[in-house]
Design a protein that fits this description.
By secondary structure, the chain is an alpha/beta fold. The protein folds into 3 domains: 249 residues, Glycoside hydrolase, family 3, N-terminal domain (TIM Barrel, Alpha-Beta Barrel), CATH 3.20.20.300; 216 residues, 3-Layer(aba) Sandwich (Rossmann fold), CATH 3.40.50; 115 residues, Immunoglobulins (Immunoglobulin-like, Sandwich), CATH 2.60.40. It has 24 helices and 27 strands. The protein binds beta-D-glucopyranose (2 copies). One beta-D-glucopyranose (BGC) binds next to loops.
Length: 743
């Protein structure tokens, strides 16, 4: 539709029609009898039948046939026949589930991330959807927070590259293209900084920290063209993000230049009352619309109050028009005025969902996101050896995370199934050995999943528990190598899954200890939605492979790595703490005035009395089956002036016995500036693949934008002086050179 027609449409709409556009409700209301809806949750929200019938968008329902039907009925009833928007959380895949986003961060491969988002978009678009509530780009530093699984990690640069890759993958050149959906960058802003890692708690961030660390990834997603942004649940400077004018008007719209649709998070407008910021629903509606929130997700704040607020002259109608314009514009950009069904197509959906190509991509991604933390000459596995596959994750197919609306574990490939395809059954045995979390462990609020935390655990009686453990220990004793698949339950991470302890469930640790007593040759495969405290298993195993929640093709991806078909190349996108007492722990911190150096015996340094300062495994760390020699970093000059560039290069040589891939990382430090700068900041990375004995030169161009920051006076730019750069294969590299930036 031409812009002028769209403007005319807006002019012609009644106030009520406009307010309707600003409401989003769950699609479930459409799947139920309207009378049952009106006595249930909708009534609690303050909705009336017309709100439900006329809401401008719905969330959480998918399926080409169903959505086409909803669209048809809706448009017939709508006075202006405006099409409805269909949104859903496609976080790491629609039906083909890719590794969870933090795992994808470990790939350090934006192009892979883009391809996975593209495949997800295809499955979603043919299933009738228009918008995905993704990417989640919140910077995360505290492993206690359950939603770290949904982010790509602790680094602003890596997050930015991954944010734009996802937006490009979802939207392509234009979101109206076939097989594309609109991306929604979330949660704006600072949600990842929840105090003490406790879900929904406040974010205490200075403006400098917000700008320097937290804003870049949102900005990158917006610059890549994301059509939507979602607000965050937390407060920023004591004002709920969702009604925060400074954040939404000055920063998001003003500074970042975002012109798309801003949607509240689920019920977040109403929650501003609970925060103690709005007096009641009406005040909440006023404050949110003043902040420029276009769509109210799942509350009746707007639908009950906006029209009245306008009629009473409290909210100018122009503010409502502004919001509705952006919503109509998005519908138009998606091409819905020309074809309200967009790509909804049952046959095409069936063709692409879990198709061979998508499964192959999911397998590639699962392999590339595995991070090898330890390997004492035991991996890749020698298939001639006698191997016992033990642990609850040997068979478990619940490896797609807690956050896959449409994904199903029945479609997943377990470790056992994948191993069965290539290991000779004469040499292998398989045992669960223990339950996942223990049949007596209860998770509250997961009632939909059964009484026990893991319904499968419920089936275990004491007898089975004893027998399984015994059999596993016997198998471990008889085997030459044990592959132990253990970790968190998929229910341990995701929204509302904060944890105070980062342990592997006790039943599994018990299994690990019993096995370690009889066989030291343990390869641990870790399933996890977050960094865990893995001191004990790291110390007592020969190899340790982090597999995260690896998705539909998880088993294949893992076995590919275990057998050496895929040489691991993943790097940690988030530090693995030594223990929970270090959280939040991250590499790009400021120096204290008394930094501790190993060996310092004086007490008055920045350190703990009882644990080391360093995480157990740092950001950027990950091993390969190959060895890579990285030459000292060479600069083409020792000083350069503003406007110029300097080149840093290293020669990387594969000195190992396998072809392999290494992620070469560039870090920078401004040694002295008008404000203290981080000890190290990632500014670039490159993945190089080399055959045995092959070498290659990897170069990074450094220009002043890479050295810029928010100066003491608030302006952005660099300052002359001494800089250090490091080029290596982890954030702990000591391969350093220095240069001067002159005026
Ligand atoms: C989450 C969002 C999600 C929304 C809709 C909220 O609880 O915080 O990330 O997009 O629900 O499902
Ligand atoms: C302490 C101060 C103290 C000073 C002199 C410092 O290490 O931080 O509190 O006054 O020593 O003893």
């Amino acid at each position: 539709m031409e812009k002028q027609q769209l403007e005319e449409l807006l002019k012609d709409m009644s106030l009520q029609e406009k307010v309707d556009q600003m409401l989003q409700i769950t699609g479930r209301f459409y799947q139920m009898d309207i009378n049952s809806v009106l006595t249930g949750p909708a009534l609690q929200m303050g909705l009336i039948e017309s709100d439900i019938n006329m809401a401008g968008s719905i969330l959480g329902t998918y399926g080409a046939k169903e959505l086409k039907q909803i669209q048809k009925t809706y448009m017939e009833q709508h006075p202006h026949h405006i099409p409805m928007l269909f949104m859903m959380d496609i976080i790491h895949g629609m039906k083909t589930i890719f590794p969870m986003p933090l795992a994808m961060g470990a790939s350090f491969e934006p192009e892979l991330v883009r391809r996975c988002a593209q495949a997800s978009a295809k499955e979603a678009a043919y299933s009738g959807l228009h918008v995905t509530f993704s990417p989640m780009v919140d910077l995360v530093r505290d492993a206690r927070w359950g939603r770290v699984m949904e982010s790509t990690g602790e680094d602003p640069y890596l997050n930015s590259r991954m944010a734009e890759a996802q937006v490009r993958g979802f939207q392509g050149e234009s979101m109206s293209e076939e097989g594309r959906v609109c991306a929604c960058v979330k949660h704006f802003a600072g949600y990842g900084a929840a105090v003490a890692g406790r879900e929904y708690s406040a974010a205490e961030l200075s403006e400098r920290t917000l700008r320097q660390y937290y804003f870049p990834a949102y900005k990158a997603g917006i610059d890549a063209g994301a059509g939507m942004v979602m607000t965050a649940f937390n407060t920023i400077d004591n004002i709920p993000a969702t009604a925060n004018r400074w954040l939404m008007r000055d920063i998001l719209r003003g500074e970042m230049g975002f012109g798309g649709v801003l949607i509240s998070d689920f019920s977040a407008i109403l929650e501003t009352v609970v925060h103690g910021y709005a007096e009641d629903k009406k005040d909440a509606a006023k404050k949110a619309v003043e902040a420029g929130v276009d769509i109210d997700m799942m509350t009746g704040c707007y639908s009950e109050n906006l029209a009245e607020l306008v009629e009473q002259g409290i909210v100018p109608e122009s503010l409502v028009d502004e919001c509705v314009w952006r919503i109509l514009d998005l519908k138009n950009k998606l091409g819905l005025f020309d074809n309200p069904y967009k790509d909804a197509d049952e046959a095409k959906a069936e063709e692409v969902i879990l198709c061979r190509e998508h499964r192959a991509l999911a397998r590639e991604a699962a392999g590339k996101s595995c991070v090898l933390l330890k390997n004492e000459n035991i991996l890749p596995l020698n298939k001639e050896k006698k191997i016992a596959f033990i642990g609850p994750y040997t068979y478990c197919k619940k490896i797609i995370s807690n956050w896959s609306v449409a994904g199903e574990s029945k479609d997943c490939v377990s470790v056992k199934e994948a191993a069965d395809e290539i290991f000779d059954s004469i040499h292998t045995s398989y045992h669960a050995g223990s339950q996942m979390t223990g049949r007596k462990v209860r998770f509250e609020g997961f009632s939909a999943f059964g009484k026990a935390a893991e319904p499968d655990d419920e089936e275990w009686g004491e007898e089975k528990e004893r027998k399984e453990l015994e059999e596993a220990v016997r198998a471990a004793k008889e085997a030459e190598i044990v592959v132990l698949s253990v970790g968190e339950s998929y229910l341990h991470s995701g929204e509302a899954c904060s944890r105070a302890f980062l342990d592997i469930p006790e039943v599994q640790m018990n299994l690990f200890r019993r096995i370690a007593e009889v066989n030291p040759n343990i390869v641990v495969v870790l399933f996890n939605g977050r960094p865990l405290d893995i001191r004990e298993i790291s110390a007592k195993s020969k190899a340790l492979l982090v597999a995260w929640m690896p998705g539909t093709e998880g088993g294949h991806g893992i076995v590919d790595v275990l057998t050496g078909k895929v040489n691991p190349s993943g790097k940690l996108p988030m530090s693995f703490p030594y223990c929970v007492g270090q959280c939040p722990v991250f590499y790009n911190e400021l120096s204290t005035g008394r930094p501790y150096r190993e060996g310092d015996t004086n007490r008055y340094f920045s350190k703990y009395l009882d644990i080391p300062n360093k995480p157990l495994y740092p950001f950027g760390y990950g091993l390969s089956y190959s060895e890579f020699e990285i030459s000292p970093v060479k600069l083409n000059k020792n000083s350069f002036c503003e406007g110029d560039v300097i080149t840093a290069s290293v020669t990387v040589k594969n000195t190992g016995e396998f072809p392999g891939t290494e992620v070469i990382q560039l870090y920078v430090q401004d040694v002295a500036a008008s404000v203290a700068r981080p000890v190290k900041e990632l500014k670039g990375f490159e993945k190089v693949t080399l055959r045995e004995s092959e070498e290659a030169v990897v170069s990074f161009r450094i220009d002043e934008t890479m050295l810029s920051f928010i100066r003491a006076d608030g302006t952005v730019g660099c300052e002359p002086g001494l800089f250090r750069i490091w080029v290596g294969n982890s954030s702990e590299t000591s391969n350093m050179a220095e240069f001067w930036l002159t005026k």
